[in-house]
Amino acid sequence: MHHHGSVLGALGLFTVLLGASLPLIDFFIVNVALPTIDHDLAAGPALLELVVAGYGLSYAVLLVLGGRLGDMFGRRRLFIAGMAAFGLTSLACGLAPSAWALVGARVAQGAAAALMLPQVLATIHSATSGPRRAKALSMYGATAGLAMVVGQILGGVLVAADIAGSGWRAIFLVNVPVAVAGVLLAVRTVPETRSQRPAPIDVPGTLLLAATLSTLLAPLTEGRAAGWPVWTWVSLGLFPVAALAFLAVERRADRQGRTPLVPPSLFEIVPLRRGLALVVPFSIGFGGFMFVIAVALQQGLGMGAVASGVALVPLAATFFVASLAGPRLVRRYGSLVVTAGALIQAVGIALLAFTVWHDWSSLDAWALLPGTAIAGFGQGLQLPVIFRIVLSEIPAERAGVGSGVMVTTQQSALALGVATLGSLFLSLAAGSGMRDALAVTLLVQLGAVVLTLLLSLRLPRAVG
To answer: What is the mean pLDDT of the chain?
Structure first.
């Protein structure tokens, strides 16, 4: 098939967005299924954490590399390879005979996701322009937010449906037909794009980024369940060392005119720098919230997997509506939309915290509806717009690197949110009960939202 120029049509955009949604759905789909997996494979808390963290970590660590490989070998080729690998590794997860086998398959699945995902934004960046690009990026933001919520709802439904006795395995096996469809669609509809001047792989940078993210995320996710053994503290102690070494290596490569994995010069782009500063607290709050809500509703309130998923439907619905309204509002009000979103989200989270505190004994999906709906609307005004701002001024030849950096930031922050807010919640729950734990965790998240509100005031007013 010959493409005159590389243009991304509607079906092609649908295909890459389908690819973008899979890894995010999969990060959250597990939250609701953890009790069943634990029961089935006798995993224990520390191994259960690894089922979540092993995926999140290998995904976050390899994302920037995936973007670089796409720049080099062609984004369509890597998207298709990543999608196929994602299908195969999902199959391996679904058939895993033991807890350790599941962890291994999840690590491989994270690696497959890291090959596929950066190609999505880079393809949008290089195969669209002007209003079409703005629209495609908004749809990417809408898809990302929606995938996170839908993943959790879908997880509950699939676990409960127990299709042909498959139980939790269905949450992984469902990816297989989707990946097959994605590969077939991509072959027909996604144009091939690559960087005109691809940079060689930065090996020391890649290894040091992996070390930096691992030394931070591994002990935080594993620490509480494992009882904070010595290695967790050693690892946290090594984190600043690895981070500084990574910075030094990247700076040196930048100075010598080579292209490092994460070029420090990329951060001279003001919208990128200020937008990423917002992605961090936003995603920490979002990731932590989703994990904590799943545990609190299931274990604290004894809701089934479906009910705890359904409690999030209002959030998904209002998020979707807000992210569709976003682009139109942005044309008129610029980045003030993000500030308004933060305010609305803060109101929603505060309302949730109050509801939890006040009506714990009679808490059901209806009581949570106002808070979750308002919070979702606020988040839907924030996330897609922030993504657009971050990517607005990245030059075309750095599309892969830039989107890799953004997605890595988002993914690491989501994992960090699950680790920190999750640990806080679980240790409070053990001491002072679920109600207090959930209320306190929501107040901490409210702090993160207020931080995004303050940071949004520094965003460039006009959005490209």
So the answer is: 86
The answer to the question of residue 4 being in a domain is no
Of 101, 100, 102, 59, nearest in space to 82 by CA? 59
Spatial CB neighbours of 68, under 8 Å, sequence gap ≥ 6: 198, 199, 201, 202, 261, 400, 401, 404
The residue type of 296 is: A
Contact criterion met (CB below 8 Å) for 110 and 59: yes
Q: What is the CATH number of the domain that holds 194?
A: 1.20.1250.20
Residue-wise pLDDT for 188-205, tens only, equals 888 888 777 777 788 898
pTM of the model: 0.86
Tokens of 214: 């691992």
Residue 289 within a domain: yes
Total domain count, the chain: 1
Residue 441 near residue 292, CB atoms below 8 Å: yes
Q: Is residue 167 part of a domain?
A: yes
Higher pLDDT, 155 or 277: 277
Kindly list the distances between the CA atom of residue 205 and the CA atoms of 66, 249, 250, 251, 314, in Å, as whole numbers in the listed order. Answer: 14, 7, 6, 10, 42
Q: Please report which confidence band the pLDDT of residue 6 belongs to, taking 50, 70 and 90 as the band edges.
A: low
Spatial distance between the Cα atoms of 28 and 147, rounded to a whole number of angstroms: 9
**Residue 146 falls inside a structural domain:** yes
Comparing CA positions, the residue from 126, 117, 116, 118 lying closest to residue 8 is 126
On whether the CB atoms of residues 59 and 22 are closer than 8 A, the answer is: no
Structural domain including 210 reads: 10-456
Residue 438 has pLDDT above 70, yes or no: yes
